[in-house]
Structure to design on (417 residues):
């Protein structure tokens, strides 16, 4: 591994969401700590809204990105609906005040008992396999309107693991099996009220969305009761300076153009749905962590921090880049560091990262940690999951307590041996 030795000066950064002093927040709530800026969430939602002019556009926030109930409540208050992928997320959504009609339930190969439960809740069903469609037909006849999740057979997305719309991916029903879908639908009289795709995450090229849309439009001719087309999500955010994010206004424009044309051919104005997760919450979140040890090995400086892949899996799982700011010392010459977590595995958060001098006790802010940060966190190494705070109207509110050892032990049973 080669390390850069050039030393340029850091551009001083005053990272203070809504004017909040992050070091002080860490003193108050401890580290590691997830902090979310409500203003950023609201800003992102407004950006989405203002980009689209089609009156029947709906956004269903993908709850899996960040599921804290206070964040969900904030998002609901902004008039956004919900996309859930598990019965647990559906229950959480209802608890937070989303109506069943606002909730799109998109399971992936779940037990049919969970399907029964979701149907009893009254959420919108998104069917991702032929066996599930047959099950619903047999059990419920024409009484449960369904959306069909199709696999557009498009390989796109930031990382292979988050590219889920191609034919080797487990998701959705292949377009080549559309005739089988139609057979089942006719056999049971199932009302198909929507069609859905989700090609992947971190898709910056608008053409990918347009191509997916075309494939859905072609499929739509087989279903006469459609009320909406759900284009899923995949809007990319900028994880570092110079990163190209999905440019939403031009995307909105070309999608709307093609959608209006489609609706004309279809004969009715349908609703146009999207399910953004990352776009709404990624940028709002910081994982705040304290430097425990700076270890100067020959040729490589390790910065150990009091968090790791148990709290932020993205770097190890997707080779994801997360910008890091040294809150305690944001000035001075830049030096290369290997920022590593405390998990007893290779646990690299940032490789060869140029930072102003890092000392033990410094607080680092890992940026873009709002989406798929806490929601993918675990107790690996029997570590406690962090607290979460929301900066709302200039005030820092605790929205999840830090776990305790009792939380880890409470469901375990010590048998007599
Ligand atoms: N709709 C469906 C059906 C999905 O499966 C997903 C994400 C979304 C919407 C939201 O996509 P987004 O807007 O967040 O790109 N853990 C990975 C991302 C996995 C996304 C899984 N599905 C990451 O951290 O990059």
């Amino acid at each position: 591994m080669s390390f850069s030795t050039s030393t340029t000066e850091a551009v001083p950064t005053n990272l203070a969401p809504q004017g909040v002093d992050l070091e002080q927040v860490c003193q108050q709530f401890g580290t590691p700590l997830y902090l979310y800026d409500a203003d950023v969430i609201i800003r992102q939602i407004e950006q989405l809204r203002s980009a689209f002019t089609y009156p029947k556009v709906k956004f269903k926030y993908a709850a899996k990105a960040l599921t804290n109930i206070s964040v969900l409540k904030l998002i609901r208050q902004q008039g956004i609906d919900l996309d859930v992928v598990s019965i647990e997320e559906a229950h959480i959504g209802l608890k937070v005040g989303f109506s069943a009609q606002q909730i799109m339930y998109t399971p992936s190969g779940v037990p049919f008992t969970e399907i029964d439960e979701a149907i009893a809740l009254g959420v919108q069903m998104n069917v991702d396999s032929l066996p599930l469609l047959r099950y619903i037909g047999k059990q419920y006849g024409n009484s449960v309107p369904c959306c069909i999740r199709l696999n557009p057979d498009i390989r796109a997305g930031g990382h292979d693991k988050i590219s889920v719309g191609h034919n080797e991916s487990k998701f959705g029903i292949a377009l080549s099996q559309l005739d089988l879908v139609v057979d089942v639908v006719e056999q049971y009289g199932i009302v198909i009220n929507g069609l859905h795709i989700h090609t992947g995450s971190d898709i910056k090229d608008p053409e990918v969305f347009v191509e997916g849309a075309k494939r859905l439009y072609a499929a739509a001719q087989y279903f006469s009761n459609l009320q909406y087309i759900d284009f899923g999500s995949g809007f990319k955010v900028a994880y570092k300076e110079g990163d190209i994010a999905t440019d939403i206004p031009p995307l909105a424009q070309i999608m709307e153009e093609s959608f209006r044309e489609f609706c004309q051919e279809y004969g009715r104005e349908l609703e146009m749905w999207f399910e953004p997760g990352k776009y709404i919450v990624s940028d709002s979140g910081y994982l705040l962590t304290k430097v425990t040890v700076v270890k100067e090995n020959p040729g490589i400086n390790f910065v150990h921090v009091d968090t790791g892949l148990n709290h932020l899996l993205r770097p190890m799982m997707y080779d994801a880049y997360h910008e890091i700011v040294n809150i305690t010392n944001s000035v001075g010459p830049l030096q290369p560091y290997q920022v590593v977590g405390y998990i007893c595995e290779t646990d690299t958060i940032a490789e060869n990262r140029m930072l102003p001098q890092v000392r033990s006790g410094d607080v680092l802010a890992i940026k873009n940690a709002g989406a798929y940060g806490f929601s993918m966190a675990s107790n690996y190494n029997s570590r406690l999951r962090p607290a979460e705070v929301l900066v709302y109207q200039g005030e820092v509110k605790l929205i999840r307590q830090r776990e305790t050892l009792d939380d880890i032990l409470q469901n375990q049973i010590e048998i007599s041996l």
Observations:
- The chain is about 30% helix and 25% strand.
- The longest helix spans residues 248-266.
- The CA atoms of residues 335 and 354 lie 5 Å apart.
